[in-house]
Records
---
Amino acid sequence: MELHQLISRYQLAINTIYRGINNILKQNVKHDITPDQFTILQHIHTKKICTSTEIAKYFSVGKSAVTALVTRLFDKGLIERIRDKEDRRIVYLKLTEAGSELVERTEQELYQVIEEKLDHFDHAEIEGYIKSLEKLATLMIDIEKG
Amino acid sequence: MELHQLISRYQLAINTIYRGINNILKQNVKHDITPDQFTILQHIHTKKICTSTEIAKYFSVGKSAVTALVTRLFDKGLIERIRDKEDRRIVYLKLTEAGSELVERTEQELYQVIEEKLDHFDHAEIEGYIKSLEKLATLMIDIEKG
DNA sequence: TATAATAGTTCATATAGTGAACTAATCATG
DNA sequence: CATGATTAGTTCACTATATGAACTATTATA
């Protein structure tokens, strides 16, 4: 099997999967925010607290894009900006009570939808696929570093 | 293993992988087009010929978004619009000579970059991951249908 | 033939991205 | 310790992509 062909199959598969997930997000992330905004909220939620620069690096976008996005979420009352007292350049981002609730409620809704859909399939088989995915993710990180 | 936890791991892995690919695209798709535009060109290239409506359905976006994107590609001389003679509502989209060349050249460049990176890893192992990915893609299509 | 449906475009508007120029704060070195 | 470099974040002008409603033109159908 040629690497060339593998890459092409890989690209097709990953696009199909990603489109599928994105559709599930589009159809189920309600509450007046976009899928992108939800992704950022989710990121802050798992990190508890973080900065714009961290988000920009993690998602590989410019800092100005993050400022704009964060401002929209701030205006909706979903995150707060807290200045560091030691280093006053840094602004920490943290979910507000409303933001946490929104993330948790939406995750629950998403899980319910996905679980219903996955219930017809063999769980052990699915777990196998996901382990492969995780190894691929590790490989991707290795590739990006070196 | 709970489904809930599996989904969460899945989401993290797929995001990592997708971000990685997107970065490779961003860094390597030159030639004055965006990654989104390249994706559409690639789609038309594999289909040989298709319509705006097909693209809109495939990528789950509105027809007006496709019109805008196609217009940009048309203005760059990368695709042509051909009216159906039987049904004059339909406009077929096809790559121009320049468009085909751009897709093929860019794919070659991408493959070269990725192959270099993958060369340090076990090919059989990678093939296993990709087979898992493909099964997951099939599962995703099943989920979307039913 | 009148009415539905379909393919695609146009328009107003919102979101998300870039990169350059900027402010403010901190670091680092001669 | 002063000055220059670096860092964090914002602002601005601009572009790309997305939505949905209203529209034109064409074809299908009852």
Note: The radius of gyration of chain B is 18 Å.
---
Amino acid sequence: MGGTTGVDQTAGADRAGSSSGVAAVLWPGEPRRKRGPRPKFSLDDVVDAAIAIADAEGLSAVTMQRVADELGSAKMALYRYVPGKAELAALMLDRALGLPPTNTSGRWRRRLRSWTVTMHERMSARPWTLELTVGRRTPGPHELAWLEQGVAALRSAPLDGAERLDTLALLANHVRGSVEQAAAIDQPETSLAESLEPILTAHADRFPQTVAAFTEAAATGRRDDAFSFGLDRILDGVAALIARRG
Amino acid sequence: MGGTTGVDQTAGADRAGSSSGVAAVLWPGEPRRKRGPRPKFSLDDVVDAAIAIADAEGLSAVTMQRVADELGSAKMALYRYVPGKAELAALMLDRALGLPPTNTSGRWRRRLRSWTVTMHERMSARPWTLELTVGRRTPGPHELAWLEQGVAALRSAPLDGAERLDTLALLANHVRGSVEQAAAIDQPETSLAESLEPILTAHADRFPQTVAAFTEAAATGRRDDAFSFGLDRILDGVAALIARRG
DNA sequence: CTAATCAGCGTCTTATAGACGCAATTAAAG
DNA sequence: CTTTAATTGCGTCTATAAGACGCTGATTAG
């Protein structure tokens, strides 16, 4: 094949050193500049270059070599800024997420909705974030800020801590899934419809209800609002729980 | 770092040939055995070997070389059975999913619930399926069977085709997210708590509500039923929609 | 001015996927 | 029962990446 991309700080079964490197880069202490020659660029420059490449050509185009080319330096020079590719990927992700919207007003439902919608926008704008949100990760400052805002949105709701966190995870998972689905549909080749149609028509007898559902969906034209649909369902479900208590 | 694993039939920007290869392997025509020497093993043997390795050592341990070793043959011999690694991965996934539970009885809610719970069990048993459900994929026979069962479960509900599909996607995404989270927690190193604790305590002032939520969650002990929580919320939400119509 | 540091980076090593082609094998065709 | 064509196993070679190591030269603390 070709893609691969693979970056994961998750690492099948690595030494723990790698992940602590991620944490160190995401949560730096004081920079301490000292003796040697001044760096040619900054960590942010490196991350920006990597993001630019990912935006333009996808995550698989982001190789250390390519990033170095973009910066006009040699590959190995990058390792003065980043311990490894996993760390670079973590930085890319946290930067791509950005800061959450800071709504302090409104009820929990409106606030949670905008939280989720904004996250959806951010990730849709950078589909490569999908591949970076696989497996156990160390959350960066931005990601934690999202969590904080989300928990804050549920402050007034009669839910305990675990329930708040679970609710946010539920919403975040929905965002992730929706973006993935949308990305698959937009793709001309290998789109959901493109790859399913031939299979479904060839085996229509084995999957009658699925065929019917897709046919109806195509006819209705009511498409690509899968995200909104799911979001409303989730919020309704949370509202039901809250109503049952409040 | 180390992991990487990367397999994705998604391939940053490949020729379409790769994905059609996936479809061809997942949905084979008639086998036609002809002239040459009899194959030393079967496609299933190859997939089984790969799955055994993934179960034992994680997906990153599944290399063509390793699979060949397992089978007692040479690496390149595998390419007589599988066009490439992406196809092998697709086969592993479809096999891991297995067939869905076939409940024809009960209301939509009970049926959907067992559908989701079973999927959760399957994927939890094989956490490596997570990494294989990233990006646009060509669904295999088992995966389509799941879809069919899911749509069937919603047969009696007053939802249109798109809504049924969206509901199933919502549930499937929740499963995926839950398994991922659980896998992160179980991991001794890099566990959610392990990596968050030091960060949260170090920056407790910046994320007060998050700290509070985690503290409360830890105190309550009410943990790891994040899956059930989300599932109930989703089903409640769908029920609300249905109630509003029925 | 001298020495401790630190940046840039050339070179080499280590996976891993996969292309290609050859030789052995076996069933179909004569 | 040969001939022949398809088909398998697989050795060899290539391409792509990440990253280890150590040297050189810049820069600044003392």
Note: Confidence is low (pLDDT under 50) at residues 11-18 of chain B.
